[in-house]
Structure formats: C-alpha cells, structure tokens
Amino acid sequence: xxxxxxxxxxxxxxxxxxxxxxxxxxxxxxxxxxxxxxxxxxxxxxxxxxxxxxxxxxxxxxxxxxxxxxxxxxxxxxxxxxxxxxxxxxxxxxxxxxxxxxxxxxxxxxx
Amino acid sequence: xxxxxxxxxxxxxxxxxxxxxxxxxxxxxxxxxxxxxxxxxxxxxxxxxxxxxxxxxxxxxxxxxxxxxxxxxxxxxxxxxxxxxxxxxxxxxxxxxxxxxxxxxxxxxxxxxxx
Lengths: 111, 115
What we know:
The structure holds 2 protein chains of 2 kinds.
Chain A: E1 3-6, E2 11-14, E3 19-21, E4 23-26, E5 32-38, E6 44-50, E7 56-59, E8 62-65, E9 75-77, E10 86-93, E11 99-101, E12 105-110
Parallel strand pairs in A: 2-12
Antiparallel strand pairs in A: 1-4, 3-9, 5-6, 5-10, 7-8, 8-9, 10-11, 10-12
Chain B: E1 5-7, E2 10-13, E3 19-24, E4 31-38, E5 42-50, E6 53-56, E7 65-69, E8 75-79, E9 88-95, E10 105-106, E11 110-114
Parallel strand pairs in B: 2-11
Antiparallel strand pairs in B: 1-3, 3-8, 4-5, 4-9, 5-6, 7-8, 9-10, 9-11
C-alpha cells in the first residue's frame, strides 16, 4: 500500500542554519503531496502542498518540490528561526482520499 | 471563519467504558475524516465520510470502533469497551470536497486516556 518515509528526528539546529527534512513515498498512481506542521500545543496545519510532478510548494520560507523520478518531496528552508520549532509531517493523498503520513520529524531551533 | 471543532478536548475514562467523541466540520465541507495520533503508531487514518456515507472504513482498528455522520455535518466517533491501547489523540479533519488535491483542515483533537 501507499507509504511515506521521513527522515528520523529529532533534528536540532542553530538559528539561521539551513534545513532539509527528507521525505520519500511509495504510491500507486499520482498522489498529491503535503507537508503539515504541528507547533507546540497546537493542531496540525498545512504548511505547503504540490499536486503534480515538478510542482513546487512554498510557504513561510519553506519549499518542497514534487520529484516523481526520485519519489521525493524534501522540505527545505534557507534560514530557520526559533519560531520554526515544531513537528513536521510529510503526507500523501491517496486515491482513496485519506492522508497517509510519515512518522514526523521533531525540529528544535536554538537561538 | 470557524474552523473544525472537537469535543471534549480531553477525556479520561476507565477501561471497559464506552466513549463518544464529537467533530463539527467547517460549514460547507462535504468530506470528513477521522485520524488517530499515538506515540507508537504515529498518525493513522481511521474513517472517511463523503456526506453521510462512509466509503472507506478501512482504518478502524476493531469492531469496537464505529462512527456516524448526520445531516452531512457533525460526526461522532464511538469506542466501545475501551482498552488502554485506545489512549491517543483523536483528530478530525474536513475538506471542501473529496479529491486528492483538496486541503484537509484539522481540529485541535480529543486526547483520550484510558485508565
């Protein structure tokens, strides 16, 4: 079945460092891909999405490109801030409409 | 506008009791989803509604779990004879329509603790 594999955490960086969180997927057909973020004490929020190959999703300085040839959707940010500390989930939307999530990556940014 | 709301926000129950969790989706959203977030299993899909019907119940972990949706709006997830392994955060999400490109908006969740 469909699955998502994320880079294991936790990840700890200093402010202004570059961030990459790896995400690869296995799916039948052509899923849509998402990054969701869960800030401390808050619910899941959509960070960005891409619905077809070579699409780039972007929001709040984060970017991810839908790479069909490598079945990847890596999350990147050029300069992280303390406020980016959160748990990040990569997900795909299967033909059955449900979201299939990766295991989550906890990111901590130190000042 | 109002987002997805869930109640209660926290529920502590004794093993063997039944619990009901409620979800109010965003007005006008036709699709509604239940997920479970637990330490051991991560985020798991439970069930999906399109209108009042549930085309996909594949994620319900046992026959102790059931869900219904009435009036194309509010949904209730019921867990009968709760077990300790049912302890988790139960998340509800809704989307404007079905389809892989539609964003799912999540509620704050109900934290269930079975003692």
